[in-house]
Each structure stands twice: as C-alpha cells, then as structure tokens.
Design goal:
GO terms for molecular function: 1-acylglycerol-3-phosphate O-acyltransferase activity. This is 1-acylglycerol-3-phosphate O-acyltransferase. Keywords: Acyltransferase, Transferase. It holds the Pfam family Acyltransferase. The chain has a domain of 138 residues: Cobalt-precorrin-4 Transmethylase, domain 1. The longest helix is centred in the C-terminal third of the chain and has 22 residues. It is globular. It contains 7 helices and 7 strands, in the order H-E-E-H-E-H-E-H-E-H-E-H-E-H. It starts with a helix and ends in a 9-residue tail after the last helix. Helices cover 40% and strands 16% of the residues. It is α/β, with parallel strands linked by helices.
Length: 205
C-alpha cells in the first residue's frame, strides 16, 4: 500500500464519520479502459478529497496552486499524494507536460477548470491538456457542504458525473476548438447541477 492509498483510507473514514456517505450519480458515464481528465467544479476545500474517495481504488493526480508548496513539509506530503503545483494564472509548458505524463503513467488527472473556489470562469488549461494528451475529459459537478458547520452537521456532498468529452482525432485543436471545449465543460457543469439539485446556488464571492 502506497502513501496515497493509505491517506485515502484514513480520509474516507474521517469523512464518513463526520459527514456521512457521499451521494454519487453517473458512474456509468466513466470511460472503462484508460486514464482520463477529471474536470470538476471547485466550491469547497473538501472537493479533492470527495473525488479521491469516490474514485478509489483508482488514483488521481491533482493539480494544486503552487502557494501550497511553499511549506516544505506540506509540499512533501502533497507530492507523495500525487499532487503537483501549478501557477493558476499562467501554467508553464513544463507543468502541462508533467500533467500529461501523469496520464501516461496511469493516473487520472484531477483538474478544477475554474482554478479557484472564488471564480466559476472556465480557464483554458483543461482543453489544452486534452490537445496534448489525447485523453477524454470527464465533467463532474460537486455540490458540497459549503461551510465547516454544514460538513459537521452531515450535510452530504452530492456528485454528478457527466458523459465524457472525447478527444477527436479528426479535429484541429486550434483556439476556436479549445474555446468550444471550455464551453462544453461549462455547459456540462450547469446540466449536472440541475440534475443534482436545481435549487443549489454557489456564490464564489
């Protein structure tokens, strides 16, 4: 058992104890054969943990803001858990290539296309990584408990997984195509939110 697997076992027990079971729908939409890009909404600090728990025993390599790695001890633990840093405003070519390498090594790639909990705008990195990796993008909407009190009161997280946005080998992945993919992700988030709970509202500000 590696560090990631041990950590997820511990986190799963803690989350179940304090927050109860996560409600998941759409598992039938997951590609069956190869690693893919998980593009998820980002509304709480708990989101990466929910994804890791739902996908276990399959492992996810997550992108995370580079400021988390300024503490050496935290950076070490994150690296052991397959988390790697990214400049959210301007991802470097090296970071994007590293993301593709994670997929090639058999990990799913976890990305929050908004880049932060304080925005819902889709940034362009996810589509560009699909262009480089030729992997499917799986959109995921998470309606989590938004405060620590909601978490402790066992307000369950609700997750919906949408149909994959597949790589098209016949397409030219130019600027227009990348923008089209970004819009497809945004549309999928809206549709999945409606499917989970049409009354759910998230204000990033």
């Amino acid at each position: 058992m590696n560090f990631y697997q041990l950590a997820i076992r511990i986190v799963r027990h803690i989350f179940f104890l304090f927050n109860g079971p996560t409600q998941v729908q759409g598992l039938e939409n997951l590609p069956k054969e190869e690693p893919y890009i998980i593009a998820a909404t980002h509304r709480s600090l708990y989101d990466p943990f929910y994804l890791a728990i739902v996908w276990a025993p399959e492992e996810i390599s997550f992108m995370a803001k580079n400021s988390l790695f300024k503490w050496k001890w935290l950076g070490y633990l994150l690296t052991k858990a397959h988390v790697f840093p990214v400049n959210r405003e301007k991802p470097s070519p090296k970071t994007l290539k590293f993301a593709v390498k994670q997929l090639e090594q058999g990990f799913h790639l976890g990305i929050f296309p908004s880049g932060t909990r304080h925005s819902t705008e889709i940034k362009s990195g996810t589509a560009f990584i699909q262009r480089l990796s030729k992997k499917a993008i799986v959109p995921v909407a998470i309606q989590p408990p938004l405060t620590k009190w909601q978490f402790l009161k066992r307000q369950p997280a609700k997750i919906a997984i949408g149909p994959a946005i597949n790589y098209d080998p016949q397409a030219t992945y130019d600027k227009a195509k990348l923008e089209q993919i970004d819009q497809s992700i945004a549309n999928a988030f809206d549709e999945l939110d409606q499917k989970i709970d049409p009354q759910f509202h998230y204000d990033p500000k």
